[in-house]
Design a protein that fits this description.
elongated; alpha/beta; 345 residues; 23% helix; 60s Ribosomal Protein L30, Chain: A; six-stranded parallel sheet; four-stranded mixed sheet; Alpha/beta knot
């Protein structure tokens, strides 16, 4: 492998750190006070792919223009109301709610496993020889639908259940489509194995919403990317929601976890990969300009964008041309546009 180019950013003598606030042009802090970025110890304030986009994908604002607010959804983990025992004035017996009134709590999967759900995610998992399968629960309709995508027999025999059973297992708010599969977590591949494959490498700098990560994986697979790399910390684990948003891409596209994003970018540069950070401050991204180079596309967190050290370590910063009344794109939508642009060679 070739050593990093001497003129590339990120070659300072100080050891890379994966921390530090983002500083915009002019040294002013660009961290929004009421945005939808990640919070310490928790998920994003936003509710997923429909939230306000990341800062790096916003159209540049004229100086002195007021900043718009960020959309925000219900906070994850918000506690709901419960039943409180009380006494009936007529017979002095404690009130007990009927069974169908009792809130249902989703079941937790055993350690090292995950409950997958949704037709495409489960069909892809059933077809993946690297995925160890434990239990398959299907409604009659779901079994027929998955059978059209992947003809049985499958590696695990299905159990016939009704939708109410899956609602109780996964939670009433989960769109499971009548299908649930308990499977072992996938073993992460090595960076070296990814470098041996062709295609763009997508690097996510603290993208925290599993639905965004899943949607990015789906787009990355559609445009022939080699892998997606996330941070070991401040990034979602492999979950059913991530797998469903990926629509089967989790089974076919390698998902790596890096301890330090800046050091990972340096390793990619050492392998002669040109690292492009996506940010509104950069010049418009042009796919034909990178026709003779292999590229890694680096995207920042929801709300906050690329961190300072991540930007400094990239070879260059590029942006997307956004026209009309919309001022920003969600990180998964921006990834799709950028990946498409990079295929125009």
């Amino acid at each position: 492998m070739k050593p990093p180019h001497g003129n590339r950013p990120g070659g300072s003598s100080r050891p890379p750190s994966d921390r530090g606030p983002y500083r915009g042009p002019g040294g002013q802090s660009s961290r929004p006070s009421g945005g939808s970025g990640a919070r310490p110890g928790g998920g994003p304030r936003g509710s997923g792919p429909g939230d306000a986009g990341s800062r790096e994908y916003q159209k540049p604002r004229p100086q002195g223009a007021p900043h718009g607010g960020h959309g925000s959804g219900p906070r994850d983990g918000a506690s709901g109301g419960g039943f409180k025992p009380h006494r009936d004035d007529r017979n002095a017996r404690p009130f007990r709610p009927r069974e169908h009134d009792t809130p249902r709590t989703p079941a937790e999967s055993p350690k090292g496993t995950v409950w997958l759900y949704g037709h495409h995610a489960i069909a892809a998992a059933l077809a993946n020889p690297a995925r160890r399968l434990r239990r398959l629960m299907l409604t009659e309709e779901a079994e027929a639908a998955i059978g059209k995508q992947l003809s049985p027999p499958w590696a695990v025999a299905p159990e016939r259940v009704d939708r109410g059973r899956l609602d109780q297992l996964l939670g009433r708010d989960v769109v499971h489509q009548g299908a649930a599969l308990l499977a072992d977590l996938l073993a992460p591949p090595s960076l070296q194995s990814v470098l041996e494959k062709p295609g763009v490498i997508v690097v996510l700098d603290q993208v925290t919403d599993p639905r965004n990560v899943g949607a990015i994986m789906r787009s990355a697979a559609a445009f022939g990317a080699a892998a997606v790399i996330t941070q070991d910390r401040n990034a979602p684990e492999e979950t059913g929601g991530l797998a469903k948003a990926a629509s089967g891409a989790l089974e076919t596209l390698p998902l790596l976890r890096a301890v330090n994003i800046a050091r990972t970018i340096i390793a990619l540069k050492a392998a002669n990969i040109w690292c492009i950070g996506l940010d509104a401050a950069g010049k418009p991204l042009s796919g034909p300009a990178f026709a003779d180079r292999r590229v890694a596309l680096v995207l920042g967190a929801e709300g906050e964008g690329l961190r300072r050290l991540t930007k400094e370590t990239c070879d260059e910063i590029a942006g997307l041309t956004i026209k009309g009344a919309v001022e920003s794109l969600n990180v998964s939508a921006a990834a799709s546009v950028a990946l498409y642009e990079l295929t125009r060679r």
